[in-house]
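S.,

Sequence below, as promised.
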Amino acid sequence: MSSLIKAPPQALTKLSPAEDARAQIAIARERLVDKLDVVQRALSPVLHWRAVVKRHPVATIGGAFLFGYAVSKFFSRK
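The prediction came back faster than expected:
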């Protein structure tokens, strides 16, 4: 976690403590935005459910059937 907040020493020279904190927060925010972009790019194919159904129609229908069966057994009165 501390590696996200550390900035190069030359970036923080001659700053007041408040400015130093703001600079560290800005650097951490930029790094988090970059990491979020990487995660979004990695997950985007999975989040497009229509593409998943087109690629694996039998598995999708089978999974939906099994899910419905499990839910019906869970909520049955017996």
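The chain has two domains: 14-47, 49-78.

Coffee later?
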